Every structure is written in structure tokens, then in C-alpha cells.
Amino acid sequence: DVLRDAFAGARRELPELTLELAGEGELRAELERRAGAGVTLLGRVQPVAPLLERSAVVVVPSRGEGFGMVALEAMERGRAVVASRVGGLADLVTDWETGFLVPPADAQALAAALAKLLDDQALRAAFGQKGATRVREHFTIEEMARKNEECYYAMLRAAA
């Protein structure tokens, strides 16, 4: 609902704007009824890489998020991200560097962030490049394994 409202607001300024929603769930029928012009419901998308690669911006408007794999995969592919400032998304997306973080459930802030990115190709490209670099530097399997190992050793030292 927040993304739908934000998209409608952004589309008033950019009438050629389109939105592709990936995913499947119990709210699909309601989403189809309320989708509006320019919105396509894709259902389950597998593999997701081609969808991310054709996207100008990837939006993750979660009200709660543990890690944010969609944001990570988008950044890995050099895409700017607009995400809610919740959970792991706030750790993944660096505001004004790899994308924009907006307050959760704030359609107006989300629309403004979308409009800013969609109106500025150079900014999108810069965010995308910095996001890909961030993923390569901080979110490789080796780096995550190293951090897990550090955590385990710290817990063992504390228990000893």
C-alpha cells in the first residue's frame, strides 16, 4: 500500500513511470484490484537477476526486515535502492551513498526519493556503483564467515 501510494505520487510527475512487483502471496487479489496504471504484478520471479538488471531503481518499502536480501542483490547488480529505514535494510543501504533510506510507511518520503533518483541518471549510476563496491567489500561469503567466526570466538572468550 505504501509503495502503491508512492508510485502514484511519483507517476504524476513522471507519467511514463512503470512499476513491476515481484512476489506471490495471499494479498495478490487485493493488489490486482488496487494496482492502478503502470503497475504489473509479476508473481514469483525465478531467477530474479534479470528483473533486477532491467530495473532503474529497486524499492524495498518494508515495515520490518531482518536482513534485506533483495536490497543486497540489487546493490550487487549496481542498482540504486530506495528502502525503509528498518532492520537490516538500514545496515545494508547507506543513505545518500548507495541509495535512499526513508521512514517506514511514509509514502510521501518514498515518492520523493523515487522521483529524485528517477530524475537523475548520474545519481542512480553513482549509487549503483557505490552499492556494488559496498557488497564486494563487506558482504562476500568470506567476509561474513570471518565476522561469524569473530562473534563465536568472542562468545567463547566471554564464557571462559
Give structural notes.
This protein has 160 residues and is an alpha/beta fold. 54% of the residues lie in helices and 14% in strands. It contains 8 helices and 5 strands, in the order αβαβαβαβαβααα. A 3-stranded parallel β-sheet has the order 3-4-5, sandwiched between helices. The protein has a two-stranded parallel sheet with strand order 1-2. Strand 1, helix 2 and strand 2 form a beta-alpha-beta unit. The longest helix is centred in the C-terminal third of the chain and has 19 residues. It is globular and about 60 Å long. The mean pLDDT is 93.
The arrangement of helices and strands along the chain is HEHEHEHEHEHHH
Helix content: 40-55%
What oligomeric state is this?
single chain
Beta strand %? 5-15%
> How many H/I helices?
8
Question: Strands across the major sheet, in which order?
Answer: 3-4-5
Number of strands: 5
Low-confidence stretches: none
- Structural class assignment: alpha/beta
Rg, Cα atoms, Å: 17 Å
Mean pLDDT, to the nearest integer, reads 93
Main sheet overview: 3 strands, parallel
The 3D shape can be described as globular
| Through-space gap between termini | 50 Å
